[in-house]
């Protein structure tokens, strides 16, 4: 395999399973200086050893982080900055879905916190590194479920109403909006932000191993034989992160290496800007509560 990523610094969340692990393996084999983010020390260290053995690349390390806690995400970003003075590729891939909407430790609905606010906090905490690294790329994992999302800035962050799948769909809509506003804020730099949908993939995906309920468990079981492998699901991710062909893409929602049109709400520029402003405030409030000893 070509060593075209030697000298490139890559940071990826959700790299201990599924498409994240498949992408991390590819990055490692191509020579990247790679950092994986994981929640479980035991599991992350096991995957780290596997990546080094599979690739022969020793320039791989890990960051332990609870992505449901924004103060911990910020701490992990600061730890990364202490180790690296550039960031060529940031992959926001970690995510979860739950049987029902669940309150997280920061006082936000957990699906929204993990699948959107963690992306936002990590990216913005590393934004100056991305801006100064020539041709830097941010790739975020969305989903075709974004089409079913309905974002209400006043309610979504803390609402426990509705179903787990609806909360997941809305968080994936937020990924598209975040990507579009991030790209707007990257104007004047060489950095690019895009998101993609991996399709239905055979992974251990779920909410910290949570049961998804009888109906969803049945759907996943029936769909499994027709689902893509993690390697197939990671194809657009790797392509967006590394391919020269993807260079012209900026602020796009991608499916199978091609820009696709997301749902109508995802194209609302004002909503995207307002979501950014709200996310800044929510992350700051969460960090402030921790600093004040109230969380």
TrEMBL record:
Protein's UniProt keywords contain Oxidoreductase: yes
CDD domains given in the database record: retinol-DH_like_SDR_c_like
InterPro entries in the cross-refs: NAD(P)-bd_dom_sf, SDR_fam
Transmembrane intervals: none
GO MF term (any one): oxidoreductase activity
Entry-linked Pfam families: adh_short
Keywords of this entry: Oxidoreductase
Oxidoreductase recorded as keyword: yes
Protein name: Short-chain dehydrogenase/reductase
Record organism: Cystobacter fuscus
